[in-house]
Design brief:
By secondary structure, the chain is mainly α. Strands 1-3-2 form a 3-stranded antiparallel beta sheet. A hairpin with a 5-residue loop joins strand 2 and strand 3. The longest helix has 27 residues. The chain starts with a helix and ends with a helix.
Length: 163
């Protein structure tokens, strides 16, 4: 019964949270409207999501979110330091090709979004076969080590989150 009303409970919760953040108001009316969006949007779009990804809500997801938030915080300071102290000609920007063990489109999108959220890197493209992600990094001295770091810090954790 609950699956018929809330076909994507995670999406519903996310929509309510995003709505409350967008309206920037903790009133009952804003919450009710957010709940309406949280129910109606997933119901209206559920037929476009035939194969829902299975997510593990628990230590794996909490760990992933913690690592991502920490990396975003640290990368902000690192990029600010690069901008303030190093001339452009001294930066060693590289295109990185990251081979993917992830197969789910949702997991790959999450990885690409995480990389783009972290200052200093941006996801650019995915290969036509879906087995590699093209990423630009602003300053990398060892491209192979950076690819290994992304795979270890993000992809390995996402493999645990997306069962």
């Amino acid at each position: 019964m609950i699956r018929r009303i809330l076909p994507h409970p995670g999406l519903s919760l996310l929509l309510v949270i995003v709505w409350m953040l967008m309206v920037n108001d903790l009133s009952v009316g804003a919450l009710v409207l957010g709940l309406v969006f949280g129910v109606v949007v997933p119901l209206a779009t559920s037929r476009f999501w035939p194969g829902r990804p299975v997510l593990r809500f628990g230590p794996a997801m909490v760990g992933y979110i913690g690592v991502v938030l920490f990396d975003i915080l640290v990368a902000n300071f690192q990029v600010a330091w690069l901008i303030l102290t190093r001339p452009n000609r001294d930066l060693q920007s590289h295109w990185l090709v990251i081979p993917l063990a992830l197969r789910s489109p949702e997991a790959i999108t999450t990885l690409a979004g995480t990389i783009s959220l972290t200052p200093g890197t941006v996801s650019s493209d995915i290969s036509s076969c879906g087995r590699a992600l093209l990423v630009h990094a602003i300053d990398v001295s060892d491209p192979a080590a950076e690819v290994a770091r992304i795979k270890l810090r993000y992809e390995a954790r996402l493999l645990k989150v997306f069962a």
